Amino acid sequence: MSASGSRDVLDLLVVGAGAVGGAIALAAARQGLRVGLLERAAAPTFSDATPVTRVATLNIASMEFLARLGVQDALEARRAHAFSGMAVWDGHGPGHIRFDADELGVPALGWTVEHAALEAALWTELEAAGVALWPETEWKSLDIRPDRVDLYGPQHVPLASARLVVAADGAQSPLRTRMGIPVREQDYHARGVVATVTTERPHEDTAWQRFVDDQIIAFLPLADGRSSIVWSQPEHQAADTLALDDAGFCRALEAVIDHRLGTITATSKRASFPLVARHARDYHAGRVALAGDAAHTIHPLAGQGLNLGLADARALVERLHGPARRDPGAETVLRAYTRDRRSENAFMQRAMDGFRLVFGTHAAGLPELRGLGIRLVDQATPLKRRLALRAFGLD
Ligand SMILES: Cc1cc2nc3c(=O)[nH]c(=O)nc-3n(C[C@H](O)[C@H](O)[C@H](O)COP(=O)(O)OP(=O)(O)OC[C@H]3O[C@@H](n4cnc5c(N)ncnc54)[C@H](O)[C@@H]3O)c2cc1C
């Protein structure tokens, strides 16, 4: 593909083959657009021997979108696991809330999926759909022209040209930086410690989450009976947790989840991620649009980051229908996409912060008050239903 000559201009070039970039490229290709995808790392692969590493929960809206793209079966064959329950409780008060798929009249509340599986499933479909794929390729510079963007590799070698370039290149987004789009950052001074663990009691196809002071622990059920844990902790506590030996780590985990799943009999290696909320001031500049973590990151407490990114993907590609096909990078198209998504993502960020504040405070009487509030929500079926509809992507 050459950057010279309009003959070779793609409708859409996506930078970043994470789940969000892969979904955008595939959805646009399914709509008949000429699409390319450029990824800095090697092409994603997945097999039964691939160890469980990054896990996310997909809500129903995300899975429906992936099903429309034709990747749900491939995901289910790659250890995706439907869960039917979610239990959330307060470490300091009586508050407890439980959601059940049966009660909501849905087959599942969500799915735990491995990033590696999702990215590999998307990549296979992208190959079959004839998308121009450039793994192990990094752009070095770009020119914004009135009708297209030209991207270049090292030594100014032309890589590709497109009417619209989507930055789906993750939280640090080199493309967002290059376009000079400012980002508001809120550092939680906390880390998410992640691992895969084996528990004495079955996980009951339930996502378990407990709030204890300024820590949040989540156990996400996996297909093989193990659980993927995300333990959000202030930085100094995370450093102590990471320094524990495996036995010490398992004991600490049992305590923080209130022994709900019995003894923890084995753990994988641990990893951790800094927790920082970010929100780009604009979702587009020139002919470049942002999506997924390049546009926003969110506290992982409700497992919504990837779901929001996939909602961006859906919204953006929906905007490329009809007359927009003539020029997918037109200002009007990108403005409409920003309108569709920016306030929704901002709302979710505020909701996560509200949750953290309410659960992270244990001033005299507050845990009891909070417990009462949670119990009322748990018993007030219509309110609980509304909450659930939004959280699980059912609305
Ligand atoms: C601890 C933790 C737990 C989480 N749990 C959940 C959960 O349960 N549910 C959920 O929905 N979300 C969860 N998230 C959030 C979720 O992981 C992210 O929101 C999601 O992975 C973002 O996907 P993405 O495709 O936008 O970015 P990424 O997955 O970061 O992909 C970006 C891609 O761009 C590529 N790239 C970067 N720079 C370049 C370049 N210059 N050129 C070419 N390619 C480039 C990268 O190699 C990568 O492949 C969690 C996050 C954390 C930190």
From TrEMBL:
One of its GO terms (biological process) is ubiquinone biosynthetic process. The chain crosses the membrane at residues 12-29. Pathway: Cofactor biosynthesis; ubiquinone biosynthesis. Keywords: FAD, Flavoprotein, Membrane, Monooxygenase, Oxidoreductase, Transmembrane, Transmembrane helix, Ubiquinone. The keyword Oxidoreductase applies. Residues 11-343 form the FAD-binding domain. InterPro entries: FAD-bd, FAD/NAD-bd_sf, Ubi_Hdrlase_CS, UbiH/COQ6, UbiH/COQ6_monooxygenase. One of its GO terms (molecular function) is FAD binding. The keyword Transmembrane applies. Its cofactor is FAD. Belongs to the UbiH/COQ6 family. NCBIfam families: Ubi-OHases. This is Ubiquinone biosynthesis protein UbiH.
